[in-house]
């Protein structure tokens, strides 16, 4: 009888030990899961930004990783440069204003290209001939696999004269460098090694 009682006591201790180990393991799993869910919740809350609307109400906004938007900003930066540089009207002050604004988006290579055009009388012909030049960007290909980022721009120029309208194909290439954001350069890029690959007439329409 005594031997049987000792066995029962020993098996009871084993069960209690087993239940204790299982309870500790389950508690550890529950605590770890709770911490993990709390961390996830905190991360989601950090993505939310509350904006005060004129001191009256709070509006919810969502933050976004800056790097996710860089390709979009890069294409917009290149597009803006081309629009400023190649959209011309027969007004000297308007031309100079656009060109000066484009220089904030690029390095000296854009200035060299401008000087070459000016020395060849390009802008004087725009003014004297009462010519309007517009540009439409077809596509911008940016390679973000290597830095600086290589960019190819495919565009179409429309040159409006009194006698005709000329459509011209324009292909340029450049590299993009990360830069400091400012009012004059909101996307934080600088165009370097700007170069024209193709600039040829496609068709001419008589007016």
Structure in words:
- By secondary structure, the protein is an alpha+beta fold.
- The chain has two domains: 2-62, no CATH class; 67-206, VirB8 protein (Nuclear Transport Factor 2, Chain: A, Roll).
- 45% of the residues lie in helices and 33% in strands.
- The chain contains five helices and six strands; from the N terminus they run H-E-E-H-H-H-H-E-E-E-E.
- The strands form two sheets. The protein has a four-stranded antiparallel sheet, covered by helices on one side. It has a two-stranded antiparallel sheet with strand order 1-2.
- The relative contact order is 0.11.
- The mean pLDDT is 85.
In helices, the fraction of residues equals 40-55%
Named CATH architecture of the largest domain? Roll
CATH-defined fold name of the largest domain: Nuclear Transport Factor 2, Chain: A
Question: Which CATH top level class of the largest domain fits?
Answer: Alpha Beta
Q: For the record, what is the CATH homologous superfamily label of the largest domain? A: VirB8 protein
Counting DSSP E segments of at least 2 residues, the number of strands comes to 6
Shape designation: rod-shaped
Largest sheet: 4 strands, antiparallel
Count of helical stretches: 5
Report the average pLDDT across residues.
85
Helix/strand-derived category reads alpha+beta
Strand order of the largest sheet: 3-4-5-6
Q: Summarize the helix and strand pattern as letters.
A: HEEHHHHEEEE
Explain briefly what this protein structure is.
This protein has 207 residues and is of the alpha+beta class. The protein folds into two domains: 61 residues, no CATH class; 140 residues, Roll (Nuclear Transport Factor 2, Chain: A). The longest helix is centred in the N-terminal third of the chain and has 45 residues.
């Amino acid at each position: 009888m005594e031997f049987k009682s000792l066995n029962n006591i020993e098996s009871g201790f084993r069960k209690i030990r087993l239940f204790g180990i299982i309870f500790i393991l389950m508690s550890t799993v529950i605590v770890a899961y709770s911490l993990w869910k709390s961390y996830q919740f905190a991360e989601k809350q950090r993505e939310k930004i509350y904006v005060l609307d004129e001191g009256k109400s709070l509006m919810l906004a969502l933050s976004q990783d800056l790097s996710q938007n860089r390709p979009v900003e890069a294409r917009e930066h290149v597009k803006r440069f081309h629009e400023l540089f190649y959209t011309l009207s027969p007004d000297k002050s308007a031309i100079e204003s656009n060109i000066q604004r484009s220089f904030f988006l690029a390095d000296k290579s854009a200035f060299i290209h401008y000087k070459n055009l000016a020395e060849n009388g390009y802008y004087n012909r725009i003014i004297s001939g009462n010519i309007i030049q517009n540009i439409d960007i077809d596509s911008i290909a940016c390679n973000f696999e290597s830095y600086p980022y290589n960019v190819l721009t495919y565009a179409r120029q429309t040159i409006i004269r009194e006698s005709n309208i000329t459509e011209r194909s324009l292909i340029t290439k450049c590299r993009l460098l990360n830069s400091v954001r400012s009012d004059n350069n909101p996307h934080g890029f600088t165009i370097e090694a700007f170069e024209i690959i193709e600039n040829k007439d496609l068709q001419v329409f008589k007016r």
